[in-house]
């Protein structure tokens, strides 16, 4: 039915309602006996002539009289006269009660109001929006929501099911910022992405929203997007809707939220949700209505004009393109997922100052957005690689594109050439020289992540002892611990290379206390942090007696014996052998933008708890990373 017909129909329906109130009383639709007067008794027939006596009917058991829903009037009552409309005390039912749509306050919409509505508003008023028509048997259950199964390395479905919901919620909400540890980030991402049931007492949708929200804060919108896609659109909550929109924006997938909008477009009422809904309407063919709605929002006090113009530009791409929208960054002082996602999708250059001052998760977001220029993606790759967002192989793939890109020059091109030499140079010394150039960037650890597999391809060189700590650190940054162990024969005891192997390689055994004393004595790091982390890591792995470790740390002005609410909880989780909860609490304890935010006592509790619950490889990598990056 065309929209004009609907308008005429509604106008006629309103007229029918108002005129019907002045007509005769409506006919009752109740069946006989429900509110109708009882019929008068029929006259008694004359007795029949006397003949043979009729057999007496069989006796029936006494039945209770049925209790009527409405008391019937007495047989001798006077006839019921239907009252005139309006004469009674009961008001007539409102139009909405008999199926006619109304506006707020029960008011019927006027023809002019109907014509001014967008198609989405019109459909919502009349209940014409697309309905969720997937059969119940075909819908995804709100169980085992996640991306990684247990067979793929994730945690089991019941990993957190029996844990206190309040503690799990506190751990997810309490982890606000990035983690200092690359390996801590990798472990926490794997935990959040695992296919798990919600803790007992927590709503499964809320559990998914908390996990996806934390993934967004960690700079993992791609994983967050995959997680929210595991929830049916009809099951979305307002909180999950907001998190999902951020995940789609963080990956540059502006229209990814549209399937949810088609089912739950009225889920939220904030300005950005409404703008996203209008964009989806525009790309589904309702360009004029979407344009009118966005123009109204441009003059609203609830929205920033800059954000609306971005939405107008993207929505206009679905139409004829006759309306131009100018984007100017002059009055913009902060960057967020909405602005970055739309700018990259529209090909608008973002000022360098906004990117430099953006939060860590936004500074790394460019690596997830395919529309980001290659040079920008490479610039963001170092931070993402050091944080654990990108793997070593992903960093190599990204720089390999730069080598094949003829139009890309400058630092990115030079790094791509050095990376190629690190892999294919004929002489091992030339490969080490190329890696040395890559380690000299703004973030040396990012260079080690980039060269992890190139370092693993090197033979053990006695001539490269000076570079051994960087080579060993590079291999451990990618988890290549057995390749790193080959260098144990050439690194001197008490050196940094020895320290990395002492905590990072499997089966290293108890640490030599004499070599440990030498390392602590030669430690030139700030506040002796490398020595502190080495002692704490060895003690947490059980490779150094805790009493000895306490004595060494006491000499350095710290202690392992002090307790906090966090340390007591992670210790208890380890005693109950709950690896997933230990991983969540380890994330809480590793927050910060640098290793100066980590203490030896925190590292000890994290490494020991991970080792106790069967995550000893992750414990070794975190301990080695702490020594390498302190």
Write the layout of secondary structure elements.
Layout: H1 3-20, H2 111-116, H3 119-126, H4 165-174, H5 182-193, H6 204-217, H7 221-228, H8 238-250, H9 258-264, H10 271-283, H11 287-298, H12 305-316, H13 337-346, H14 352-356, H15 360-363, H16 374-387, H17 392-404, H18 411-424, H19 428-439, H20 444-450, H21 452-456, H22 468-477, H23 481-485, H24 496-504, H25 513-522, H26 529-540, H27 546-555, H28 565-575, H29 579-589, H30 600-612, H31 616-629
Helix pairs in contact: 4-29, 5-29, 5-31, 6-7, 6-8, 7-8, 8-13, 10-11, 10-12, 11-12, 12-13, 16-17, 16-20, 17-18, 18-19, 20-22, 22-24, 22-31, 24-31, 26-27, 26-30, 26-31, 28-29, 28-30, 29-30, 30-31
Number of strands: 0
State the share of residues found in helices, binned by percent. Answer: 40-55%
Total of helices: 31
Distance between the termini: 70 Å
Mean pLDDT reading: 85
Strand proportion, as a percent range, falls in under 5%
Instruction: State the secondary-structure class.
Output: mainly alpha
Question: Over the alpha carbons, how many angstroms does the gyration radius reach?
Answer: 36 Å
Largest sheet: none
Question: Shape from CA axes?
Answer: globular
**Low-pLDDT runs:** 13-38, 44-88
